[in-house]
Amino acid sequence: MGKFILLLFFLSLVHSSLGLSSSSLYPTPLCPPADSSALIRFKNTLSIDDHSESCDGTSYPKTKSWNESTDCCTWYGVTCNKATGQVISLDLSCSKLVGSLSPNTTLFRLQGLQRLNLAYNSLDGSLGSSGLSQLVSLTHLNLSGNYFLYLAASDITSLSKLISLDHSWNNYLKFDDHSFGMLTRNLSKLENLALVDVDMSDVVVPTSFLNISSSLKQLDLHGCQLQGEFPIEIFQLGYLEYLDLGGNSLTGYLPKSNWISPLWLLDLSFNQFRGSIPASLGNLTKITSLIFEFNHFESQIPDAFGNLRRLTFMDFSNCNFSGELPSSLFNLTHLTSLDLSSNRIQGPLPTHVSGLQRLEDLGLLSISENKLTGEIPPICNLSSLYVLDLSRNYLTGTIPACVGNSSSYISTINLQTNSLTGKIPDFCVHENDLQVLSLNDNQLEGSLPRSLIKCTALTPFPTGWVFFQCCKF
After folding, report:
1. Which has the closest alpha carbon to 338: 289, 379, 372?
2. Angle 455-460-462 (CA atoms, 0-180°, nearest 5)?
3. For residue 435, is it within any domain?
4. What one-character-per-residue DSSP string does 65-98 give?
5. Going by DSSP bridges, is the β-strand pair 218-220/344-348 parallel, antiparallel, or unpaired?
6. Three-state DSSP class for 326?
7. Where do runs of H (alpha helix) occur along 45-176?
8. Count of structural domains, the chain
9. DSSP bridge pairs for 412
10. With contact defined as beta carbons under 8 Å apart, do 444 and 465 qualify?
11. Residue 106 and residue 131: Cα distance in Å, rounded?
């Protein structure tokens, strides 16, 4: 027994010595002195604005605690390669940084840097030639929400490994046709491109877009002053998940077929797209948001939209749509916002009440300023409804008794300028947030319901409720 115990003790010593030797042979690497020095010198060229409250109040001065006496791999915002210790990622977004970046900033000496995020600070300067091009390993670059004056296209296009580029909301930045053309031709691996509110008024559409990466997953060019006919081919990119072209002056048509991409957001708002809405759009089974407001479409809303089972947000206001509403639209059980106002939609609201009642999470229902006829169906179980606007149509019949109590969250009920008759039903029977109740320009009659006393959140005329232009008391 004694020999057995001695053997176990010997084996434990051997195991411990092996553990010590392996840890001494392969110690956790420290940040290289060159990287640490580059970061400290970069930090010292900038200042911190403690009063800055960008990023919805979540800004934090990450560089404030950086200290030369500690390993830079432990600093806020810094990520190192576990094998070499080299800095591979720098996330200083929302860090309250103020100052200018120049082409010779020591930040560009981080040769192993793969991800750089300086978004939502107060950085300015001109990132000219020989600047960013030094970061040859860069795959993700986010400079959005700053004040850069110039960004050399040659620097960007030399970053051949770039997968994601976000340069949105830089108030003084401008891309011309040459620089954007270089970007689309040379960045063949690009998957995400966001240039929101960047001046692209000199970019020639569609030619500059024809060479864009076929690997593109997200394209956000909202408010870029683009004009001209947008190429159909972009809609048909096989990997595209997010396409936002809103707030431009683009023209063009939607492709009639080959809607096979995994799109979950499509925003064409405030443009001049025209033609019909193809039924094949119903093939976008992953779509959650369709935003087409303020365009010149001349068509009916396809019945195939009933296939968009994941759709939560739909804004088709001011689109020149005509025809009747497809009943399938009200079977989209995930829909939380539906705005079809200011079109030429006609005919009755769907009479199958079950469709409306399935929309339990619907927050906004607006079909105002159309040519709807018939009666308002009983809208009784829309428990999350916040806004109901059916104003300026040709609706007849009485107001369903349950309209005013369909949701405790409802803030606006607007039924003005129709041909509604009968008595005003009870409103505010239960606790409520009703602020606007507009019933004017109808043929309602009878006395005001006593329950209105409980509508304590109603705002005064003219933004709130109006009765006396409509009713016979």
Report:
1. 289
2. 130
3. no
4. G--TTS-GGGSTTEEE-TTT--EEEEE-TTS-EE
5. unpaired
6. coil
7. 153-157
8. 1
9. 387, 436
10. no
11. 10
